[in-house]
Amino acid sequence: MASDSGLAAAGPAILSLVGRQARRLLPRLRVGDLDDRDPDAIRELLPGLWLAVSAWFRPDVRGLHHIPAEGAALIVGNHTGGIMSPEVMISQLAITSYFGVERPFYQLAHRMVLNSPLAPILRRFGTVEADPDNGHAVLSSGGLLQVFPGGDYENYRPSRQSGVVDFGGRKGFLRLALGHDVPIVPQVTIGGQETALFLARGDKLAQLLGLDRIMRIKVLPLVLSAPFGVTLPFAPFVPLPAKITIAYLPPIDLRARYGEDPDLDQVYDDVVAEMQDVLTALEAERKLPVIG
């Protein structure tokens, strides 16, 4: 049996190997380049994608009129459904249908998503890497930007916590909105945690393995999904056809509500509480898992 000292000595070598593989599989994408968004491709793809998404997820999208009709704004959503994240594609299609393909609308996503099989379509619809420079570039240009502060930590929360908004204390979205003096539009989604059985985040294991440093991820999730049962962490899967409901809330002008120098802790608590109230109400509407 290997001694403890032997395992300790092997640890750095194992982590180095994992790191090399991660960098090979997850190459860095262009930062600040928004040109992959293609209105012509969106116009061509939108009808077919909307039909497919509607047939599978039966989306119920409410409150699109709350999104400002023009100018820069920051849409802040709770994240669901693991790497498949159905609310990303549904909101892309719904917002683009509502405002037209010419309105510049972008979404920040983890580099892992932008190296997934869905990446070519997502890029054409405006998905860019979740890098601060990209967020600043979109809002500086007057675009509409969607962010999911909870990231992988919220995305892979256990299915039993489907009705919980959990940003993990991340407040960068507030600094981004204040820095560009744009309103926040909360987006609340339910149904994504029913597209598979999310059993555990594996956040302590991810921390032990140093995955945040290597791959910018904070979880190593355990997921049961179709068609193979246990899914490798972050591997694509066939989502169950769970009904997805999305609600957009009235925009929040942070300085108008909280003054010129808002207390970020107070604002964070208020925004999360407001979203949580809506998510709790949406959860109460659901009669059965997956069916909705």
From TrEMBL:
InterPro entries: P_lipid/glycerol_AcTrfase_prd, Plipid/glycerol_acylTrfase. Coiled coil: none annotated. Keywords: Acyltransferase, Transferase. The keyword Transmembrane helix does not apply. Residues 73-192 form the Phospholipid/glycerol acyltransferase domain. SMART domains: PlsC. The keyword Cytoplasm does not apply. This is 1-acyl-sn-glycerol-3-phosphate acyltransferase. One of its GO terms (molecular function) is acyltransferase activity. SUPFAM superfamilies: Glycerol-3-phosphate (1)-acyltransferase. It holds the Pfam family Acyltransferase.
